[in-house]
Amino acid sequence: MAPRTIDELASAFAQEPGALLLAGGTDVGLLVTKQLRELPTILYIGGIGELHALRSSATGLRIGAAVSLTRAWGALVEAFPPLAEIAQRFGSPPVRNSGTLCGNLANGSPIGDATPVLMALGAELELRRGAEVRRVPLERFYLGYQRKDLQAGEFIVSVLVPPPRTDEWVGAYKLSKRFDQDISAVCAAFAVRVADGRIVSARLAFGGMAAVVARAARTERALIGAAWSEASIVRASACLAEDFTPLSDLRASSAFRLQSARNLLRRFYVEQTQPGVATRTFHALAAAVPSA
Ligand SMILES: Cc1cc2nc3c(=O)[nH]c(=O)nc-3n(C[C@H](O)[C@H](O)[C@H](O)COP(=O)(O)OP(=O)(O)OC[C@H]3O[C@@H](n4cnc5c(N)ncnc54)[C@H](O)[C@@H]3O)c2cc1C
After folding, report:
1. What's the mean pLDDT in 99-109?
2. Atom 5 of ligand 1 has which residue's CA nearest to it?
3. Could you tell me if residue 56 is inside a domain?
4. Per the domain annotation, does 250 fall within a domain?
């Protein structure tokens, strides 16, 4: 089925809650080509004009469920320039042109790259079921491995991203074996505010460290109130071992994941205090690979 309006989608999904939503198909396609699964009724959302809307206003970005990754990352990088590298390293141009940002969030993979970024930025999802609309902070959407706060017949309408703050530093990092088109071993995103030399707010979100993408609550608590110094960052980053017990798999060992998560936080600090380090690293890496 290919409804033309959100109302039509809501009523079709309410009547057939076992249907599978299809956006860009870059995850759904693999259910067929890799898992050889028979799919149920498919509800394609790409024909709904309203879901292609991407709005930027004083209250932030509102990115509709059918907006491609290319457009969504474009708007995110404009608002938050430090996201440029992770945007470039998400899949490849064909994947970013077909896939959607909301599809990545809905898929709920513990190693999805957009999820930690949007969680650190404090994003919320706008959900709809029948006529009922509700909002859920992204950090509360993932209940456990492959379990989400999504009722039968409920779908994502858009993701809402608060506007950038002049007093907040943002960083995002993807660690993988290849620079382009690879699955993250660890993905981290940070949003930190500092006033009078002290950390007043810290949102640290990690992928690849647990069954779901999650914030590092204990590390955040250790940072808040501490001096913005390398010593406090290193001390607080030890708490990551209390926040996460990562798995060992073919991409990385548990010890590697924990050590690199700690190192990424330290790198974030170095980049903020020694401007130019990050840009130099990115340009050196980007120059080493053919452009897209
Ligand atoms: C070659 C390749 C490279 C990739 N590289 C990366 C990468 O670097 N980083 C990364 O994180 N991912 C990557 N992916 C995974 C994939 O591209 C992303 O997860 C993408 O964002 C999925 O979006 P989509 O629109 O294609 O989703 P779809 O495949 O259409 O759907 C994905 C899931 O979300 C559900 N869904 C879709 N829309 C909604 C909605 N509005 N409400 C509720 N549920 C919905 C679908 O039912 C399905 O379960 C890659 C995939 C491929 C094939």
Report:
1. 96
2. 91
3. no
4. yes
